[in-house]
Amino acid sequence: MSDIKLELRNLVKVFSNRPEPALTLLNQGLSKAEVQQRTGLSIGLAGVSAHFKKGEISCVMGLSGSGKSTLIRHINRLIDPTSGEVLLDGQNLLALDLEQLRQVRRHQISMVFQSFALLPQLTVFDNVAFGLQVRGEDKAQTREQVMHWLATVGLEKEAQRYPDELSGGMRQRVGLARALATDAEVLLMDEAFSALDPLTRYELQTQLQQLQANLGKTIIFVTHDVQEAFRLGHHILMLRDGQVEQAGTPQGLLDTPASDYVAQFVQRAQLPT
């Protein structure tokens, strides 16, 4: 039985209704910059292949514009690729119809955003319950699940408050509880802690590590912070200009960087003790 939970195969994203000229040039081996210069088209991904193991935290790193957020949004098809495949447990998600895709999003993949993405008109309880209510879960079971996850993230006493009454760290905990409440096996986190102060950020990193160790979720965590990636990640995927620059363990990136770009990125990083 394979230990690969997610696999990306040669993902290309050209932001255009007529991507063929760019695809042709990319297939000829031209870089993202060269293709953009020749065609005037915006290239989000230029042939990304990667895999993510079950029960691990994988961190996707890179500078702004490297394709991190574009990549993670391909996993749950918030963005569809121009070409390539996204496999979840061996199933090609691009072959799913709209209803099948909805079921994947409701049951198998959850997402936590940098901007919290809470519904301001709903209480903390109702925000966490939202995904379960959309699925049509039993009310009593929903309440039990919501209160369990609010207690897990330390917010059970805030259930009837509204998002604008909470601190940034508390709001991000609500977002995390909402994602966990659906019991999805895969959790996508797009720079989820980057807007928080350093102390709150560290506390949430610790909580995420504990949750992952207890629950065995497969977590894809996007960050531009190398120290955060090295603290959280079992596996690192380093992107540059819409392509994979290097993939491996934090120790591997430190010991044998594949390029000057990687070496400069990780030079000040320290492995957690």
From TrEMBL:
The keyword Lipid biosynthesis appears for this protein: no
Origin species: Candidatus Paenalcaligenes intestinipullorum
Chain segments annotated as transmembrane: none
A matching Pfam family: ABC_tran
Entry-linked InterPro entries: AAA+_ATPase, ABC_osmolyte_uptake_ATP-bind, ABC_transporter-like_ATP-bd, ABC_transporter-like_CS, P-loop_NTPase
Name of the featured protein: ATP-binding cassette domain-containing protein
Ligase as UniProt keyword: no
Residue ranges annotated for the ABC transporter domain, each copy included: 25-266
Coiled coil: none
Keywords, in A-Z order: ATP-binding, Cell membrane, Membrane, Nucleotide-binding, Transport
GO biological process: quaternary ammonium group transport
One of the record's GO molecular function terms: ATP binding
Domain of life: Bacteria
